Amino acid sequence: MSYTLKINGQNHELDVDGDMPLLWAVRDHLKFTGTKFGCGMAQCGACTLHIDGVATRSCVLPVADAVGKEITTIEGLASPAARAVQTAWVELQVPQCGYCQSGQVMSATALLEQNNAPSDADIDSAMSGNICRCGTYPRIKAGIKLAADQIKNAGGVA
Amino acid sequence: MNTNRFSVNKQNADVDTGRRTFLKVAATGSAGLTLGISLSAGAQSRAVADTALEYNAFVSITPDNAVRIYIKHLEMGQGVYTGLATCVAEELDADWAQIVCEHAPVDTAKYANLLMGQQGTGGSTAMANSFMQLRRAGAAARAMLVAAAAQRWQVPADDIKVSQGIVSHASHSATFGELAIDAARQTPPANDNLKLKTPDQFQLIGSESTLRKDVGKHNGTAIYTQDVQLPGMLTAVVAHAPRFGARVRSFDATAALARKGVHQVFEIDTGVAVVADDYWSATKGRELLQIEWDETRAETRSSETLLQQYRSLVETGGTIAEQHGNAVTTLTNASDTMELVFEFPYLAHAQMEPVNCVAQVSGNSAELWYGCQSATGDQMAVAQLLGARPQDVKINTVFAGGGFGRRANPMADYVLEAVRIARQVPDTAVKLVWSREDDMQGGFYRPAYAHKLSAALDSQGNPTAFRARIAGQSIMAGTSMAAMMVSNGIDNTSVEGLTEFAYDVPERQVELHTTDVGIPVQWWRSVGNTHTAFSKEVFIDALARKADIDPIEYRLSLLGNNPRETAVLKLAAEKAGWGTRELPEGWGRGVAVHTSFGSTVAEIAEVSVQGNNFKVERVVAVIDCGIAVNPGVIRAQVEGAIAYGLSAALQDELTLTDGVVDQSNFHNYQVLRMNAMPIVETHILPSTNAPSGVGEPGTPPIAPAVANALADATGQRLTRLPLRLA
């Protein structure tokens, strides 16, 4: 069946089964490979993208349910919060293997877009759905705080 | 400059044409052709820089002023891109910003791991074996740039300076790029003629400033196996047997083949392969397969049954792995002894990127794209399968989404599975993808073990004799590496860490029962030390407590012959405030120290306990890894190694019921998440020794440090992983 998905501001026509998870439509059909496959059951967060600005696990979201929504993948991230997060990620050398980091960046960005001064507890709560087996958690936390500071210094608009 | 050559993926770029065009343009000094090289069939890791501009096996400098460093080790998160590049850039006097790293091709003659004799990554050897080799490579390239400049400017080479990517003499100055072509034509200097820097001249090695290498891991452009795109590529999944050792008896693929997107279904050695347009179609097709398994030779025991057997085994004598004096007699006659029995479950690696591999077989040759860790071994295995020569198997190495041991399979299991599928779909690239469930239930685990440790004690509570008995599967038996790693029935990876005992105990004996179990096992970050460091350090702690002596003092008194362990312990105690920093009510503090892969690490953990729950709040780590080439990478690795070991200390546990793995995904194989991550403070002991391992040595001490902290807080002596308070 044909579906129209709005991804990173552009409409894409897709002829796939409606029950195909958005992750595979995005990766295998539209070649946005920044969004990663980690578990297939919304347990690890590697597939996190934004649906209408909300961090969402794309590996369990059927394509049919994503129609009419604003989908943002890591390739389309452009908000001040996103830039601050990505700058902090490079600055603090957050990634190790890096495979989970697209999802980490998406979750961190969504957090800062809603709360530009998160506490440790806010960060734990927003980020504990994203597994990193390399154990970059301390740097992710530090990266979010650095990004929050940058946003604050730039005038507080995430 | 494009620092990530895979980030621009133009399907129309023909690599051979690209190479010729590049040479032409390079000769006129234009830059910019580093863009637009696709990862299409035929692309290889040196597509950009032609061999004519290779100064040696590790360095290429192009007129666009890029210094390309070929990394012979797999970058899987351990930081080899940064760490190894640091060595080259140091001696080359390059500007760090001009460094571009890429994986070297598989070519054992050029890129062997000097500690392994074959190309491959593992055993935390990347820096240890490369340090001098890469410094020489950088120094040689520098000498060629200087020779070219001397020729061009007609000045003595000795008067030429090189600093941060600029070659200069009086009024002359040139970038590396401006000299690149002339310099490449110079005769490479002999190793004996190279002048390497003395440590006081190092600018980059040991530098505390973060040496950032942005390779697109923050913006989704870094390419992993899962992301490889090739024209006409298909995706394959495999239905594996529910029990290890079972084989396909028969199968019915009618429904699967009728599924949209499914191309082919066929039997291979390891199960039934489904080849489809994409992953979703392949997976849906697999769900429709009807398979009858022949379980005649399947392993049907439960993990608990095995551990029961191991607990009995360690009550009896095993094969002697190490013997000093007559520990058995001393133990028998001792008036005071201590005994503890330890248990360790199977562990999955659970790296974030499940196992995968892209392969294309054409006639007798093959090309592969994946996070290749055992380069020579994989290449040989594929060549043997196809009846080809190793050089007919071309391997393109991409980033690996974690490894922790899993990707270096001595049997090349998943690589051969990909090739077995691809050869049934000739001239077509096939991406083999394991789901998380396939990965978790697909074997090659850290083996389960039981240990029994015994000590005879003198009147002060000091050990006079020590015996360790270990029961569990051999990682090496039956692999191509058995000849190297197993001797007289002892697989060194089963006993390492308890042999070569750090503590000064005059009589010692280590015994091993190697068990025969049909569950595939493999190394897991820090290998044998994952279990031996735990029993050793918990046991020593228990001895200290029994003697009513401070656990650090007790250790130090037994480490008189061991200056490295002594030094890291003392520094860790100081940094953690051992004996000076007051802990909140309900907290406990524990220590462990262990040497592995040539490096020594002490860790002090602080835990808070509430009822049967606890949280690790803070960990202070001190590492002695020789010269700290890149302190930032070292700290990141120690943090990560602690997180990985802590995950196993707190919750990782893989069990089997009647031979079927009970866990399947992260909902029932729980791993460490951010909310359980402690504060980690890493300190690097200054050293002038040659660099040693960094990726693994931080893992072994964390579980015993936490167990010892729990003993401090609660009095409970936990000897089974994962740790659970009663």
Automatic annotation (TrEMBL), chain A:
Keywords: 2Fe-2S, Iron, Iron-sulfur, Metal-binding, Oxidoreductase. SUPFAM superfamilies: 2Fe-2S ferredoxin-like, CO dehydrogenase ISP C-domain like. The keyword Cell wall biogenesis/degradation does not apply. One of its GO terms (molecular function) is 2 iron, 2 sulfur cluster binding. The keyword Iron applies. CDD domains: fer2 (cd00207). Residues 1-77 form the 2Fe-2S ferredoxin-type domain. PANTHER family: BLR6218 PROTEIN (PTHR44379:SF2), OXIDOREDUCTASE WITH IRON-SULFUR SUBUNIT (PTHR44379). This is 2Fe-2S ferredoxin-type domain-containing protein. The lineage of its organism: unclassified sequences, metagenomes, ecological metagenomes.
Automatic annotation (TrEMBL), chain B:
It comes from marine sediment metagenome. Gene3D superfamilies: Aldehyde oxidase/xanthine dehydrogenase, a/b hammerhead (3.90.1170.50), Aldehyde oxidase/xanthine dehydrogenase, molybdopterin binding domain (3.30.365.10). Residues 219-297 form the Aldehyde oxidase/xanthine dehydrogenase a/b hammerhead domain. This is Aldehyde oxidase/xanthine dehydrogenase a/b hammerhead domain-containing protein. InterPro entries: Ald_Oxase/Xan_DH_a/b, AldOxase/xan_DH_MoCoBD1, AldOxase/xan_DH_MoCoBD2, AldOxase/xan_DH_Mopterin-bd_sf, N-heterocyclic_Hydroxylase, OxRdtase_Mopterin-bd_su_IorB, TAT_signal. One of its GO terms (molecular function) is oxidoreductase activity. SUPFAM superfamilies: Molybdenum cofactor-binding domain (SSF56003).
